[in-house]
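User: My collaborator sent over this chain with a note saying "see what the structure looks like." That's all I know about it. Can you take a look?
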Amino acid sequence: MRELVRRFAAMRSGRPFPGFLHVSRIICAIYLTGCAGRQPVVNRGQPPPSQPAPVSAEKAEAAKRDTDVGPATPAPARKPAPRAKALDLPVSPGYVEEGNASWYGLPFHGRRASNGEIYDMYRFTAAHRTLPFDTVVRVTNLANGRSATVRITDRGPFVENRIIDLSLAAARELDMIGPGVVPVRLEVLSGGDPTAGFFAVQVGAFLERANAERLRDRMSASYSPVFIQTYESPDGLYYRVRVGKISGEDAARRFGEQLRQKEGFTPFVVRLDDASALGEKP
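Assistant: Without extra context I'll predict from the sequence alone. Here is the result:
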């Protein structure tokens, strides 16, 4: 302690202490070494910011479409899908029929169909001998798989080995304009019971009324009722001879086969409609 007081007194008196310079050098060296070892924080090296991964042009455009939509708005409440309108007629799914289809256009275009409508060959309609009017049917061309949905508005075809006559529009959809007749499958989508109602069997069609009357008189001896129904076709007035008023299509078909075997006719089972007198296809 005394030594330190003596040194301090010497420093105040202006006389240099012999070891003072040596101590000063040591202190300065320590200070400079410490200063050299410290670096300002701002000068410290920082790792470069990570770059986003490259994005393809398609994804970039998709992202742009997703974000360029303006401020977010709450999604509107989803409304329930509208229900299909209830049909006035009972639906009879599961009715399937296979056979040949033909098509008709001119000269029937613009003429009255069997249900009273004016036939428009550019609409998806069809003629069928027994399905109720307004029955909706899917028709599939078994040769190429193409299909069309049509509404029954007419009666026919009265040609053996054909089950349906399609409008020009439906025939184009099935790609059957060229062939004219193709194998098809019918599937009822909606409408009345295809087998319920009253049916008759057509046994002949004549341009001469006298011929129709002779056949009617001959058939009346064994069957009843037998009646003549007229139809104004593009080829002239037809007189159709029909037999029976039979409840149910199955019973009518059995009766038609009896007439084929006993009388040698080519029978056509046809539904009896209230509007049938307005006209039918030959």
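A starting point for your reply to your collaborator: The helical segments are 2-12, 20-37, 57-67, 168-173, 209-220, 249-263.
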